[in-house]
Amino acid sequence: MSRYIRPRLAEVNAYIPGEQPQERKYIKLNTNESPYAPLSNAEEAVLAEVSKLRLYSDPSCTLLKKALAERYGVKPEQISVGNGSDEVLNFAFMAYTDKETPVVYPEISYGFYSVLADLYGVPRCEIPVRDDMTIDPEDYADKPGMIIIANPNAPTGLLLDTGAIRRILDLHREGIVLVDEAYIDFGGISVLPLLSEYDNLLIVRTFSKSRSLAGARLGFAIGSPEVIADLEKIRCSTNPYNINRMTVAAALAVLAKDDVYMENCRKIMNTRERVAESLQQIGCTVIPSMTNFLFVKAPGRDGKAWYEAMREQGILVRYFGAGKTSDYIRVSIGSDEEMDCFLKATEEWIGG
Ligand code: PMP
Does the beta carbon of 115 lie inside 6 Å of ligand 1? Predict the structure, then answer.
């Protein structure tokens, strides 16, 4: 770090993403990517963009917003887009928080929320979860600022039903309620129908998990036209070309065959249930998940030991360090073959 960086930023701990090893081949179950590659029409669409790369991408993302609006039954002016949903979250922080306007989220949730809060010098209000890691909507009463609920939550995988989110919205009429639905396609029910009732509801989604495009970086927001106009103002004031041509092409190709990607999600859910059952049979605690990962604890061992044992076997999972989650690891759901390798290595480790 140089001596020129501003003191507040010097103190920020940057988000530490899951490893993307370049040196050797691992079974990657650490960053919730899809085990299924995009279809060939996406590959063709991306390749067809290469000859046009001298030209900027469409700063309004007109075709992409139109396709997303059709897919979700809303108007194009209810959609904004980001370079990954992380960027959409960043825009929401810029728009709806400041030194006097805190951000409120469950103490166990996606690690990026606290990083963004620190980056912008925004006070954080981290609400404890219950002993079983579930969220009590009543805890969100009388909390000024922007509330963020990852639903299903990460890294627990737990889903709140629409009634619980409605309760949070009813308790919080004066600020934004951002519902991060990164994992909603793996068995959850979206709060999209609530948009017509609550103009402070902002839904954030991503193409990184259910649509096999983590490397293309595409996230989007759905909200009231007024809220979306806020995000678009920030997007166009930061980088109006934030979505590159190849990503737009890939996303349109994926949306044209969305039924296949939704079927992939069902396959992943089946694998998830099978793996959860096998882990329970060997004595592990498995939190009920509505995502493409499992948050699990091995009997009598801590998460770090499990993480390290898997790494030695060439399998990457995620360990979140000290605190309430230190007994747990998070395992992304890969292909059936990959999960069989993980189960075998785990059985050997627990038995050994
Ligand atoms: N929200 C949650 C809850 C996540 O787990 C992730 C993935 N790390 C993201 C948002 C960001 O995903 P992306 O930027 O790839 O869209």
Answer: no
